[in-house]
What does this fold into?
Amino acid sequence: MELFLQGDEAMLMAMPIVVYWLYSGAYEALSCFSGMDSYRLHSRKEEKSKNLVSKAQVVKGVLLQQVIQATLTLLLTKFPGDDPNRHKPSTTAAAAAAAVRFFVAMVVFDSWQYLVHRYMHHNKLLYRKFHSWHHRIAAPYAFAAQYNHPVDGVLTETVAGGLAYFVSGMSPATAAAFFCFATVKGIDDHCGLLLPWNPFHLAFGNNAAYHEVHHRRHGAGSTHNFAQPFFVAWDKIMGTYLPYAVVKREDGAGYEVSVEENKKTE
It folds into this structure.
């Protein structure tokens, strides 16, 4: 087993899962405090009424996907033709190269997810059988980020990760950091809390409010804002970007995302 599963490969396989439950668990604990209600995009009542699956079902679905994803990740690291130069000790030049590869991985990851995600909505059969699982969650919360049908999870996320890994030329250690970062970003996009001090919400236009628009079952939201998890570039390039505004609810209980459908770019 030691020969089959090296240290960096074990980290690549396990760390994103550990990070997922620790980070989403922290959000879940945070959302229990009543003081967080003023930052919610959906009230507690809306979470129960709008979502079509229980949190227990979501946990089971996420765990199933993570088992499949971890298995495929391990197999990908054994793919023949791996460049041994990717495993040399870090130097300043290597660190700079790793940063470039990290960014390339972000672009590749985003590009594949946009294309497949959009097609999953365009093809009614694929949407009904697979992607509709994810949209059973209309009021997103943190640990529902990876709630997908297993086929959808493999096609949209696992393949995106594999392409990002091989195209960028990342080492397993760099890839582990990248996938942990992508995991955290995906959770933030589904967290349901718009915290003013959240660095991810400040640094990226693709955030919880942006993705909340897409999770709406009615209106133009479900046919727009497909980009995930990092940039909004593909939505703007392809004409599927839907402007929105974040406003305080009249009762002061959190925020509301107002969609400007008359200004959609498609």
User: Anything to note?
Assistant: The mean pLDDT is 88.
